[in-house]
Amino acid sequence: MSFWEYVGTRHTQLLADTYQHASVVFQCMVLATLLGMLIGVATYRSEWAGSLATTSTATILTIPSLALIGLLIPIVGLGVPPTVIALTLYGLLPVVRNAIVGLRGVDPALVDAAKGIGMSRAARLLRVELPLAWPPILTGIRVATQMLMGIAAIAAFASGPGLGNEIFRGIASLGSANSLNQVLAGTVGIVILALLFDAAYVLIGRLTISRGIRA
Amino acid sequence: MTPRGSGDGAGPGGGRAPDGHGVEGLAHLDDADMAERETASGEAPLRAPAAGARRISWQKWTFMPAFLVAALLATWLWFRGARLDSIAHQAVDNGKVWLALRQHIQLTAVSTFFVLIIAIPLGIALTRARLRRATPFAMAVANLGQAVPALGLLVLLVIWLGIGARSAIVGMVIYAVLPVLANTIAGLRGIDPTLTEAARGIGMSPMGVLRKVELPLAVPLILAGVRTALVLNVGTATLATFGGGGGLGDLISAGIITQRMPVLILGSVLTVALALLVEWLASLAELLLRPRGLEGTN
Predict the structure, then answer these.
(1) Can you give the CATH number for the domain in which B210 is found?
(2) pTM
(3) Which residues, numbered 223 to 242 in chain B, qualify as contacts with chain A under a Cβ-Cβ cut-off of 8 Å?
(4) Do the chains contact at A93 and B13, CB–CB below 8 Å?
(5) Where is the ABC transmembrane type-1 domain (chain B) (predicted)?
(6) Looking at residue B107, what is its pLDDT?
(7) In this predicted model, what pLDDT tens digit does every residue of A80-110 receive, in sequence order?
(8) Is residue B47 part of a domain?
(9) Cα separation of B266 and B274, whole Å?
(10) Mind listing the pLDDT tens digit for each residue in B194-204?
């Protein structure tokens, strides 16, 4: 069976897996972005809290994903819970780090000016600092999403959802006629998803980066 | 990926790694690492800069090994007390744990060696005047390569080249070459052009400029690339088990498939400890091998 025939006959299964893959990565990324920005906002002013946040999230990123999932299984069981926890943890680092770098990089004179025209602390953060720090944060989100695409494939080994299942079905039937098609379909699907997400981020950048700082 | 990655990433994730491990992300990882180091050296501002040139805050550098020893000891004590049935015994008896650990280290060392001898010369070649037009192309390929999942790449190579450690190593090399290459190119391109012009002006040959000016200045970024490669490879080596390549992934997958939690936890803890140890050693090397002339700049 050629690859295209395989894709033709299995397209319902493949589309379902693709949808689940995209959905789990998207949801975990939303969670990681919210948590990461909260951590960034809470720690960027203090030297040691900021470096504690980046060091600890960097340590999580050093841990191989299969091992982290392996440590989560005895605690939360198989399936969706270890997948979501692992993906969210791995998604945190680039967001936290870029949020701290971005917020610290905001020109103090601008924050001072905002204070001078009577803006409250929250207004300064929401209307001056965060919009200025948004481009690096968005870059962090982009990098994290691409990374999560590959990690989500590995999470399928712990019965997680998504295209990784297609790859593991191929591994299970290694040597059979369809194994190459299955692995190829899973891998190509993930690459396509990663590129689509990347394109979406370019679009989001166009729409959300404040007009004043757009290059 | 990472980190790196890590990454990154990087990894290294972050990373790609992580790692993660996108290329842009790795640049950010390095920024923050340098900021971290600045704070580390800022703890004793009164000492003369010459005397404290290689100052390393010892708490920072002894914390990780102490933590790892404690974690490994606790796991070992717990594992000895855990009740193992025959299936669990089959997974860990006859020195299988040591074998897996040794295979893992071998996979990581061999693939990192190949990554370095491919990526660094290639990075140097791509920044020479004659090939400079190919640089954006190489960077685009490196960025695109980040989108390919490590698992899919590895399994495709297993189908193509057959089961075993060789396919795993080829996959790991391909996966880690791209971030290291991107790091090397970025390092060499980031060098102030007035410096290379000055070197040429005093009559240095192109080879002399490369050896005496460009490479020493790019050492920090190249070393960051080495660390990225090591961290990425320790992580990717866990996936070698899916292609019969051995390594600590064997213990993890045996634990998951047979539902034997002690085996799973032992495999995972050993993998995590190895990854953290490798990262620690690499960042130590990064700090000690930095050229003395660059100490002041960072």
Answers:
(1) 1.10.3720.10
(2) 0.80
(3) 231, 234-239, 242
(4) yes
(5) 101-282
(6) 92
(7) 999 999 999 999 989 999 999 999 988 889 9
(8) no
(9) 12
(10) 888 888 888 88
